[in-house]
Write a structure and sequence with these properties.
- It contains nine helices and 18 strands.
- It is an alpha/beta fold.
- It has a domain at 246-383.
- The protein has a twelve-stranded parallel sheet with strand order 1-2-3-4-6-9-12-14-15-16-17-18.
- β14, α6 (259-268) and β15 form a beta-alpha-beta unit.
- The longest helix has 19 residues, at 78-96.
Length: 383
């Protein structure tokens, strides 16, 4: 990037601007910029957004017939690259020790030893880290989940992480006093299902849970929460405490969903004012109509509840009896419901469209706790 007089416009930028630009690159690429010229020799040391991606190290030694899983096996030259990657992270963090690190992204994909990861986290915490992205096949240390370690942390993304074991009271507690965004992807916890994963984050605004494999209950203490997104496999019941937010949007997208599990999940998220459900093929695990009714009565009578939802959106509805029963429960316990917008799956043949249209008319016969609800039912057609 040069001016008409031949001068380098990029190199003429202030160090703070160059550091910001370099913060979007992997650190391996960032360090290589030191070879450009004397002007660039030390710029990389001032970068406060540190990105470490192990795939940049694998690419330099991919043999014919390479498969990504080979990188995690003891197949030369990958062990050398694995330790080279970890040594590189050690070196970069030692240079930044004592300075402020704004962002730490680590994509190790099972190629990082747990004791090294623990030490890296300890280092970035001392550097008053504000944003952490971790994609690792490893368990996180207990100290990472305490408030003293997350004093400055505002955004946290955990992918493929094993949650630490519970304390003596059966709790795994994530305590983040200033956390605003929490994203959990493909995380695991396969210990005692009676344990509780407690998320205490008074400033949390956005929670995303995607394809989690967590057997315990998730309990939220996040009074300012405004968005919850749950995709993939449904979790065990959420419990929400002290929700003061006036607008909470919950989005759920999970194929082949057990209807009872969905209702139990929604009960935990009862403070939602806007509820979006898509791509859910609702059905009960037991095909017996008697057992279905019994399960619904248990949810309806033994444990009464009330939804705060005002706007309900459902996409890809199949038009089966199980879905009708679930909607009956939702309508009956949503006294503030104002609008319902339901869109069916695409129906090409009239033999499919007619039952769906009949299902839409049948919805208006359901008892609704709200006296002012408006229902819009759309049957999608294929061209």
């Amino acid at each position: 990037m040069k001016n008409t007089d031949g001068s380098d416009r990029l190199s003429s930028l202030h160090d703070s601007v160059l550091s910001h630009i370099l913060g979007f690159l992997d650190m391996k690429q960032v360090v290589h910029t030191s070879l450009l010229s004397k002007r660039w020799r030390y710029v990389w040391k001032s970068v406060s957004s540190l990105n470490f991606d192990h795939s940049f190290w694998i690419k330099i030694a991919q043999p014919v017939g390479f498969h990504p899983l080979m990188a995690y096996m003891a197949i030369p030259p990958f062990p050398r690259l694995k330790y080279g990657f970890m040594d590189f992270v050690d070196h970069i963090l030692s240079i930044h020790e004592g300075s402020v690190i704004d962002k730490f992204n680590l994509y190790g994909a099972g190629c990082c030893q747990k004791d090294r990861v623990d030490e890296w986290l300890s280092t970035v915490i001392r550097c008053r880290i504000q944003e952490i992205h971790l994609d690792l096949y490893t368990a996180l240390p207990q100290f990472f989940f305490t408030s003293s370690s997350t004093t400055h942390l505002k955004k946290l993304l955990l992918a493929s992480i094993q949650l630490p074991d519970s304390n003596s009271e059966g709790e795994i507690m994530l305590d983040c006093p200033v956390l605003e965004t929490l994203i959990l992807i493909n995380c695991h916890y396969a210990y005692n299902p009676s344990n509780v994963f407690l998320i205490s984050a008074p400033q949390l605004r956005k929670l995303v849970c995607r394809s989690l494999h967590i057997s315990c209950t998730i309990k939220l203490c996040a009074p300012n929460l405004i968005s919850v997104t749950c995709t993939g496999s449904l979790l065990r019941i959420y419990h929400m405490e002290n929700i003061s937010s006036q607008e909470l949007r919950v989005t759920i997208a999970s194929q082949r969903t057990n209807a009872q599990e969905l209702l139990e999940l929604l009960r935990g998220l009862k403070y939602a004012t806007t509820l979006d459900i898509s791509n859910c093929w609702l059905s009960f695990s037991d095909n017996s109509d008697h057992d279905k009714s019994t399960n619904m009565e248990k949810l309806d009578v033994e444990e009464p509840f009330e939804f705060m939802v005002q706007e309900l959106k459902i996409q890809d509805l199949q038009g089966n009896e199980d879905e009708f029963m679930v909607l009956g429960i939702l309508f009956k316990h949503a006294p503030y419901l104002k609008t319902v917008h339901i869109t069916t799956t695409r129906a090409r043949k009239s033999a499919i469209r007619k039952p769906l249209a009949k299902f839409g008319k049948k919805l208006h016969s359901l008892h609704t706790a709200s006296t002012s609800v408006r229902i819009k039912f759309v049957v999608k057609t294929r061209m």
